[in-house]
């Protein structure tokens, strides 16, 4: 497998912003959230299983997965949540591995919000953590999605702590400053890491 850099961070840390800068440098991205959507696309066997289990209420009029309806059904039901996870997690992992294996660039960025929680660190040669203060996470995530603070706090509580995440990090980008001030600094930091990863990837080959 190519050199794999795992990128992770809590909700609202700015993972997508930083992944996009790597993408602009020509680095291929394998994104767990994108893969999770791909495996349940309209017409997929997994979507058929989900609809058979939960009923047509989890489908939109177009026959696609109604994520909000599904979330509502499993949110307070541990047994249903476990059923869904047992169905989806192996398929998502298989597809992520296939996409990682298919890369031909010197290294690939593997973007996974729950990299540590789902024990996916073993697939990575190096781990990059996007670090922000918890209050920044709350502020950004509530601004971005119009989510209520309680829901974001629940999501944060379900993720590993900031301290734990940093213990796993080989590299850290602090993304706490205001975007306007930090855009150039962020790009500079990413460029430095990009050069490092190219060098490490070359050493691995």
UniProtKB/TrEMBL annotation:
The keyword Transferase applies. Pathway: Cofactor biosynthesis; coenzyme A biosynthesis; CoA from (R)-pantothenate: step 5/5. The keyword DNA-binding does not apply. Coiled coil: none annotated. Its main location: cytoplasm. ATP binds at residues 12-17. It catalyses: 3'-dephospho-CoA + ATP = ADP + CoA + H(+). It comes from the Bacteria. It is found in: Cytoplasm. GO terms for molecular function: dephospho-CoA kinase activity. Pfam families: CoaE (PF01121). Catalyzes the phosphorylation of the 3'-hydroxyl group of dephosphocoenzyme A to form coenzyme A. PANTHER family: BIFUNCTIONAL COENZYME A SYNTHASE-RELATED, DEPHOSPHO-COA KINASE-RELATED. This is Dephospho-CoA kinase. It comes from Actinobacillus porcinus. The lineage of its organism: Bacteria, Pseudomonadati, Pseudomonadota, Gammaproteobacteria, Pasteurellales. The gene is coaE.
